[in-house]
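Homework help board

Subject: predicted structure for assignment chain

Our instructor gave us this sequence and asked us to write out the predicted structure in C-alpha cell form, then describe one feature. I got the C-alpha cells but I'm not sure how to describe them. Can anyone check?
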Amino acid sequence: MRRFVFLFLSVLLSSAVVSAADRETAAGEKKESAVKQELRNHFKFYGFVRNYFAFDTRESVAGSGDLFYHRPLDVKMNEDGSQDLNAVSSFRFLALTTRLGVDVSGYQYGRTKFGAKVETDFYAGLTGSTGVAQLRLRQAYMTIGWDGLSLGDRTDRTASVTLKLGQAWHPLAADQPHVTSLETGAPFNAFSRTPQVLMDAAFGRHFILTAGAIWQMQYSSTGPEGNSANYIEYGCTPEAYLGLSFKSGGFLGRVGASVLSIKPRRTGVNADGVTVKVSDRITTVNPYIYLQYTARKFEVKAKTIYSQAGEHLYLMSGYGITDNTAADGHYEYAPIQASSTWASVSYGSKWQVMLMGGYIKNLGATEDFVNTAGKTDADDFYFNSNGAKNLNSMWRIIPTVAYNVGKFTLALEYNITAAQYGDGLSYNARGLSLDGLHWVYNNRVQMMVRFTF
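My C-alpha cell output:
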C-alpha cells in the first residue's frame, strides 16, 4: 500500500513539474512572439554593403579614403618648370561606406503619431594601409505628426503637420542628383547632415510649407579658428529655414532659403590696446530653386543655389573683413558669393543610365576686403576648407551605367571635373579679380558594387 501511495505522489509531483515547465515554455514562446510582432510592426532594419573602385588621373582634394571627390588640385611645377607634380595617377578600392539603419514607425497616442530613424556607416580614419574605418552617426531623429487637422469650417479641407527633431539632411542638401558616387553631387549640390527642428505642414494635396531651426555639428562655418561650430554657438542664433514645395502628378518644385547669423570673434583689441569683448557678426542668405519631373522609368532633376558664405553647406564660399578701424575693436564682414547649379537625368530600372552636369561660379565679395596685420587679400579671408581661394569656376560631367538585379547593383561611372584657377586674386565689390586664369582636369573612373538588405 505504501508503495502505491509513494508511486502516486511521484506521478502527481512529476505532472506538476511538467505542467509548470509547459506553462513557462508557453509564456516564453508567447513573449518571444510578442517581441517578433513588435519588431515586425514598428521596426524596419535596412542597410547595404558597398565597395568602390576608383582611378584618378590627377591629385585631388577628396575625403573618406579619397572616395568623396571634391576638385582637382592646381598646377604645382617643380623647380626647373619641367613637370607638374600634381599630374599623378592613383587607384583605390574600399568598403568603408557600408551602412546600417533602422526606421521606427506605427506608434500612436490619440491623434499623435511617433516615429524615428537611426542611421550609421563607416567613415574616415584611413591613413595608408594601417588605418581603420570608424563608425559614425549619419542620421538620428524622431518624428511627431498629426493628420486631418481642420482648416476652417469646411470638412474637406484638412492639413497634416510633421515635426522632425534630431540630426538629418539639411533642407538645401536633401534633393540630390542621379549619381552613384559618394559625394552625391557636392560641391555643386549642398551637402550637410546637421541637428535641426523642422516642421512640414501639408495643405491639401499640392502644397507643403517647411520651416525650421538648424544647428551645426560636422558641417560648420569657417573663421579665425578654422572650421568650427563655435561661431554659431556664440552667435546664439540657429540657422533659420523657410521653404515651399509644390507637387502635382510627376512634378515636384521647391523654393526656399536659409538665413545664418554667426559671430566670428568673441574678443578683440580696442584703440587703447586693451582686450575687450566685441560685437562681431555676419548674417547671410542662401536661397535655392529645385525642380523634378518623373514619368515611369524616366526622371529629370535640377537645382540652383545662390550662396553667401555657404561653406557650412559644403559650397564654394566664405567671407572676409571689410572694416577693422572701429575704436571698440569690432570688425565688419562681407560674404563671398557663389552660384552652384546642377542638372541630372535617369532612365531605366534593371539597366539604368544616368547623366549629371554641374557648374560653379565664384561671384566675388559683396564689399571690398581689407588687410589686417600686414596680410594680403589672398590670406586674410575665410573660405571653404575643401575649396581654394584662387578658384574662379568649376564644372563636372558624370555619365553612369548601372545594372540592378534584386538587391544587387553594379555601376560604372566616369567623372570629369575641370577647375579654373588664377595666379593672383582680389575680392572686392566688383567680383573676383584673377590673373593668369588656367584650367586643370581630373578624370575619375569608378565602379561601385552594392548589396542592399
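Reply (TA_rk): Your C-alpha cells look well-formed. For the description, you could write something like this. The CA atoms of residues 156 and 387 lie 52 Å apart. That's the kind of observation they're looking for.
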